[in-house]
Design brief:
By secondary structure, the chain is an alpha/beta fold. It folds into 3 domains: about 250 residues, Rossmann fold; about 80 residues, P-loop containing nucleotide triphosphate hydrolases (Rossmann fold), CATH 3.40.50.300; about 100 residues, no CATH class. The chain is built from 16 helices and 14 strands. The strands form 3 sheets. It has a 6-stranded mixed beta sheet, sandwiched between helices.
């Protein structure tokens, strides 16, 4: 029996600045049976995430009809109808890591409280607290994290964070679970752990799941049936193996890379770098990881890959290379016009050297209320050599030392939550960035 029924669903977006209309979903129809895992696959921009947001009841649509567990939605439906769908569903959003900086257990307890009261405040009464704790611990066990229940959020691997997010959604006891790229940006072992967790949840709770992923292996392992979206339309629907064969036929074979020659200019160098960091639970030290005597050189124009198990230092190494984390010992050297500058040392030379470096974090930090051109303008204002030189002059006028300016400049490359916390600690507002690094003119940005 169908628990989800979608008929003729169409969703359009109008771009405010240009007035152009983009069709996100175009006359989409399908059903999902109770207890089924339906996979949704397609290229980026095909409409997969838009579909999940409509099924969640948080996005309106232009035409069609959506039924979720006997609750009917049309474009004319009241806000109350959309709220009913929200109570029937839970969603795990793509690359969302919105967790409290507390233990796994407390993160799940807060969601249990939210499901009961609408607020994530933990109860003060001991009996109620223990009741919430017991329910949360059952969910933590279900996602395979019982042995790590007291681990802090900031030491969890990407896969473990994904499982905590799943646990928090299960606290609402949804009838339909919507998963948007749950295994994105994870290593093969972590991906398998996440998929095993989803399979366990499905088998234990007989939960209906709609799973969006661009990874064929995820659908092959989990999906009972698959639909393929292309430009907002369903172009294929059928058994998972058949649909994946059709999808992968469209992917071109990889082109071999040119071999790297030894005569290329060296652009980045790590010299005798040591870094030690500690992993803590809410009440104990669980592991000390030490990166010892790291030495390597990266030639100009080369794509260098790093591979390794979760929580072994890959992200820390990226942070060292980008200058947003300092080594305990050693040098991180960047080639600036033939001179190697150590960006582990703060100052004017380091600011100019780091202008040549960009970093893309696993947890995206895009500003949701700004257009694409606005966000490009902001980053160009930070990384253009002209604006960096102007920032040095403006800082001198404001009495800001090169050392303090370098600290501020590094904050711009941190994930948003980290940067905001450090700004608060320094008793500064984000406006200081716009004062020192004004946005690039729109005409220049478009070029």
């Amino acid at each position: 029996m169908a628990i989800v029924d979608v008929e003729g669903l169409t969703k359009k977006y109008e771009l405010r600045k240009t007035g152009d209309v983009i069709v996100g979903l175009d006359d989409v129809s399908f059903t999902v049976d109770e207890g089924e895992i339906l996979g949704v696959i397609g290229k980026s921009g095909a409409g997969k995430s838009t579909l999940l947001q409509i099924l969640r009841g948080i996005e309106n649509f232009d035409s069609g009809r959506v039924v979720v567990d006997n609750v009917v939605l049309t474009p004319e439906s009241s806000r109350d109808q959309f709220s009913k769908v929200q109570r029937k569903t839970a969603i795990h959003l793509q690359r969302s890591f919105a967790l409290w900086g507390q233990s796994i257990l407390h993160n799940v307890m807060r969601k249990v409280c939210s499901a009961r009261t609408g607020l994530e405040d933990l109860p003060e009464h001991p009996a109620e607290y223990e009741d919430v704790k017991a329910e949360a611990m059952e969910i933590v066990d279900l996602v395979g994290l019982k042995d790590k229940y007291n681990y802090f959020y900031n030491i969890l691997s990407g896969g473990e964070k994904q499982r905590v997010l799943l646990a928090r959604q299960l606290a609402f006891k949804p009838r339909v679970l919507l998963l948007d790229e749950p295994a994105t940006m994870s290593d093969p072992l972590t991906r398998r752990e996440i998929m095993d967790t989803i399979k366990k949840i499905h088998e234990k709770l007989n939960l209906t799941i709609i799973l969006v992923s661009h990874m064929p292996e995820v659908h092959e392992y989990l999906a009972d049936r698959l639909i393929m979206l292309e430009d907002g339309k369903i172009t294929y629907e059928g058994q998972t193996s058949e649909a994946l064969r059709y999808f992968t036929q469209q992917i071109a074979d990889p082109v071999p890379l040119e071999p790297v020659t030894s005569d290329r200019e060296k652009i980045l160098r790590l010299k005798n770098v040591w870094k030690k960091y500690r992993l803590l639970t809410s009440n104990e030290l669980i592991q000390t990881i030490e990166m010892k005597n790291i030495n390597f050189t990266i030639p100009k124009g080369v794509i260098m890959a790093m591979i390794g198990p979760t929580a072994k230092g890959k992200t820390v190494l990226i942070r060292l290379l980008s200058g947003i984390e300092k080594p305990d010992e050693g040098e991180v050297l960047v080639n600036v016009s033939g001179e190697f500058v150590d960006i582990a040392k703060y100052g004017r030379k380091s600011i100019i050297a780091r202008q040549k470096i960009e970093v893309m974090h696993q947890e995206f930090g895009l500003m949701h209320n700004e257009t694409v051109i606005d966000q490009f303008s902001y980053r160009l204002g930070l990384k253009s050599i002209k604006t960096v030189e102007r920032a040095l002059e403006r800082a001198e006028e404001l009495g800001i030392t090169d050392l303090k300016l370098d600290v501020l400049y590094r904050l711009a490359d941190l994930p948003e939550d980290e940067a905001r916390a450090l700004l608060q600690k320094m008793e500064l507002s984000q406006d200081i960035f716009y004062e020192l690094f004004p946005r690039f003119p729109e005409s220049e940005t478009r070029k």
